[in-house]
Amino acid sequence: MHRILIIDDEDDIREIAALSLETVAGWEVMVASSGAQGLARATSYQPDAILLDVMMPGMDGPATFRELQKNPATAHIPVMLLTAKVQATDRSRFADLGVKAVLVKPFDPMTLSQQVAGILGWI
Amino acid sequence: MDLREARQSNPEGENHSPPIWSSLSVLAVAMAAGFILARLEAGPKFDWLLLMTAMGLTAAVLMRVLADVTAERDAAARYAGDPLRDILDSAGTMVISIGLDGNLTYMNPTAERLLGYHAVELVDKESTEKLLAPGEEDRLVSEVRRLYDINKPVEGRQEGSLVTYAEVVHSLAPSQVPSFETHLRRKDGSLFPVRLHISTLRNRDGLPIGLVAVALDQSVNATQGEGLRIPRDRYRDLFENSSEMIATLDMVGKFLYANPAWRQTFRLDRSAPLERDSFADVFGPGCREEVATLLKKALDGVTVDRAPLRTETADGRVLELEMSLHQRRRAGKPLAVQCLLHDVTQQKQREHRLALQLVVSQIVGENISAEIATKRVLEALCISQGWDVAVKWDVNTEENRLEFNTAWGVQGKGAEVLIQESMGITLAPGGSLPGRAWKEGRLVWASDLAVLTTSPRVQAAIRSKMASGWAAPVQVGNHVLAVLEFYCHARIREDRETTAAMETVAGSLAQMLARTRERERAEELSRQQEILLGSVADGICGVDRNGLVRFANPAAARLLGARPQNLIGKPVHQLVHGSAPPDKKCPEDCPLRRASGQRKSVTGEGTIFRSNGTGFPAEFFLNPILDQGRFSGSVLSFRDISQRYALDRMKDEFVSTVSHELRTPLTSIRGALGLLSSGMLGVINEKAANLLRIALSNSERLVRLINDILDLERTQSGREPLAFKPIQLGEIVRQAIDGVQPMADEAGVLLIHDKTQVEVTADPDRLLQVVTNLLSNAIKFSPANSAISVMLRSGASGVTLSVIDQGRGIPADKLEAIFGRFQQVDASDSRQKGGSGLGLAICRAIVLQHTGRIWAERNPVRGSTFRVFLPYQPVAAKTEEGESSPATHGAVLVADTNGATRPLIADQLSRYGYRVVEATTVDQAVAVAHDGVSAIVLDTTIDGINGWEILPMLRREDPEAHTPIVLLGVAHPQPPAEQNHKVDHLFPRPSDDALLGELVKVLCSPGEQARILVVEDDLDLGQVVAEIFRREGIVVRVAHTRQGAMDECLTMQPHLIILDIGMPNGDGFNVVDWLRQHEDLNRAPLVAYSAHGLTQAERMQLVLGLSHFLAKASVEPEQLEALVLTMLRSSQEVEESVTEVSAGQGS
Questions:
Q1: For residue A88, which residues of chain B lie inside 8 Å, CB to CB?
Q2: Which of B237, B244, B234 is nearest to B181 (CA)?
């Protein structure tokens, strides 16, 4: 069973994403509501992958990602950005960060786990 | 002593006694000579007083000379050396003396010359009878008798003898010696009129010794001045018929006689006794005093000569007269006063008018303000005509009324009051005199205002003691600019001269006012333009044909940080990019650099540099100025768009933020609904599941909408640059078809695309988006079992991609609108078809970014075609004639006066990549043809000139006849016999786009090889048929299936199709049906054949262009070949002979 950490400041989205991954794929999901909390939980929880929101107050997605990369305890964990920004310039900017993928909001809860699994080669 | 004094003083002087004569002789001679000479020089007008004086003096001289003649007959010896004799000999007047016996005793050289005799022939030999005209002597004698009241013969004298006369005259004072008009007879028998003055010649003792006659030749002025100088028995006749006014007055100034001319002029009653009329009372009140003074002088014996008089007659006419008064005396006593009036009214009026004209033209020429000039002109007119008030009214067309402008009035006479009342009022059309003159456009005259009292204006004039009034329009052509109104306290009737004077003045004023208005209008216009140019925020520069700035408005100077005068003379490019810092120099192909001085419109955005080297983002336009079709310069306008840039950035951020903010809640909704409807979280009843599905699909639609809005926004803003690279367009089409194939399968729609490979430079992702969008649109609107074709066609400058469907089609009025935002054909479409309503807008934005064009067309039978034109290379900066046409093929002259078809043709041609130059006149067309074009589309009539006649003019501009000329219209389908100019194609006036499409094909596909498509499921038979035509050098392709046939049709665009109707999968009829949908294919001649015969209905079904049907069994290969070749040929003939063109594509 895969273990996923979802970092998003939006409670609703966090809940739906978690529900989706848990119900559809049967994965174990841990959530964090800010970048800082995410960093802490990533270190302690050691998930197989992280879904990271881009737009967050305080430390935003890219900043959190950079912190994750800096920390040897979390640097190896694959990160996928989840964003409502769709402009090509934004997307390519995010891709350049070194994340595994950029997933677009809104997502289809029925296929989200398949998408993630496909990207990470879990199928 | 001048002549006048001499005349007046002499009568007294002649009453002296004979002894004084000698002492006066020298003076007398001098005077006589002087008078005679003066007389001759003074011209024809005879002055009888003068003659009389001369006569008296001459007699005195002769008396001295001839006193001794009777005593001593040796005249010759005695005369020699006598100075008096010299005077007589040199006088210009005939002087003849007669002895009492009637024989001539002397005649001077003038008499000799005029009479044609030598003195020696007559003197002492002949009597006067020989010199007088027949019967004149008797007449003269009786005249004398009548004049001097000689009723019985003088005693001891023979009746009729001159002695009688001599004795009678002798008794008279010299001043009373009468003169006679008579005729003398020349030696040759011809007669001539003379004025004869005969007086008695006396010796020293005062006894008569003969007569002396002084005769003045009257030939020259025989007709003049007769009135008072002819014998009395003819006076009356002459008086009665004379046009001069003649009257005789008694010595108290009462009329004795007035001739008809007089009576008529003064309207005196012919039958009324004249005594009633006192002389002065006949004249107008204004001059009676003057007349009385003159009369008094005349009564006192002073002659009045042509005294000028101005009088008004009782009926309102003004007469200009010259009055001469002369007292007649008899026997030294005043007898009567003769009055002669000469009417010089017309002459004076003419002089007046001339003077007036001169004054008016001086005033008008002084370049003072129109109002002052008008006032002075009115003043001049009134003074010259004696009128009291003049008012000028201006026409106000908008308010339809007359408005007071200016006035002039004479002092007193109520003029001031009337003018005061005029100020500030307006007059309606009609009613008042000016109102009528305005409306009727002509002079309106009221010699008696009292009959017009209905008008308040006239009432005001009457209150101001005006008796007559009139008004005249001041007009240029039929346009009345103003009205002049006049009043006079006297009654003045309309007459020709006055009218003429008014017209003169009105005409001058009209010219002046028209000029003034024109000038004011021009000044106003140029002032407005200046204000406009001065107040606009855009920089505007006028550029001459050499690309140099000739004018710059203040905004241009402000934007460029320079003074306007420093901009003048700079080249356009230098102006905006000249002060760029070295690291920001623009590239060689800077659009402004290329465009300056050329005849192109250039629009663009870029950095413009101020004179201090700083730059600002600007939008610029360079537009050519065409003066009657000729390039005469350009206008450069530019504006600072930094604010717009800032706004764009803000909008960008806003859109980005909004999209994020919208998507976040949507993500939750979409996710929640998705999970719920999956049923994984618990069983949901059917109704609830249905509701969940609705909510889910709408949340998805909301997501698409937001995506499309963002997409369109970033595409249109152009801030997300395209990733241009060379791509195979066919590959993009394939990808798009792959993408929409599941959707097509679901809808049961067949997708067909041609295999043409063509490379363009484009952004593959964006282009894929366009094609996918067009295809998914087509699928949405296509019925099941229909086909959608994608066709690629290469042109000279780019490729046209067409997506052809058989769907419900697009109404003609929506063809353009559907590319707007949220502009679907049917408002319910977005719900039913699930589109956002932005797809085509996004497509257009993307295509425009590729500097291409996208448009929709209606198919001939059903469905629509969407076409995308893409240039092989996107044009960097748009150079445009109209909106944004990819003008790449070269120029086509469209010369057509029809305002409806010309834009249609132009639009169609420009869609196909032609630059269209439109011409509406023959001159324009020839001028454009002279500049060179790649083709000419010509209307059959322009400016009423037959196209066939214009043709040679155009051909002259193109002697080698390279330029294809297409003649439109069916008015003259055949050229006149004598015309032999080549027309490449002749079309009926196009009624739809399809025909124009053909036109374009003709223009771009000269001399193609014929192409035939053979559709035959039997592989061997197909090859056999193909081989037959290949031998003829015809390109042949063979297709074995319906799908293959469709693909080949799109790819090769055959000129002719040979079709086996009985094909297994999808029969030949389906192919025919499909072909009919294609405007490019539905005119292709079709040869259909079948193993079995066809019913008539089936044949009808096959009709497509020129069609033939053959039964397979009965046809020999040669027969088929012959038929096909005939059809191909006839198809070409059809092209050439008007109606249909089925030539192929431009590939």
A1: 714, 720
A2: B234
